[in-house]
Amino acid sequence: MGGLRKKLPITFLTMTVGVVAIAGIPPFAGFFSKDAILFAAFQQGTLGKALYFVGLVTAALTAFYMFRLWYLTFTGESRSHDAHRTRARGPCLARW
After folding, report:
1. Taking the C-alpha atoms of 35, 37, 34 and 36 in order, what is their torsion angle to the nearest 10 degrees?
2. HSE-up of 67 (CA within 13 Å, CB side)?
3. pLDDT tens digits along 66-93
4. Please, what sign has the CA dihedral across residues 29, 31, 34, 37?
5. Rounded CA separation 72/28 (Å)
6. What is the pTM of this model?
């Protein structure tokens, strides 16, 4: 993988929107859902505050790994030896 931004521009754009949404960046839906869940957990006393902290760490790890996935897939040089070869024909299911 790597360097797929120019080869898959539509996938790059949709993946970018998906990564930003799941990372919880405003104004995307992921921000509002995570915010509501974390706020509800925070209001539930001592156990709720512990759950809030766990949820906050989990949300941060999700954002980190999603951006890492996006970065390694679409930026930089290709890290695959087979990426430069082209197929002579399509996949098997497309021929049926």
Report:
1. -40
2. 10
3. 999 999 999 988 777 665 555 555 555 6
4. negative
5. 23
6. 0.71
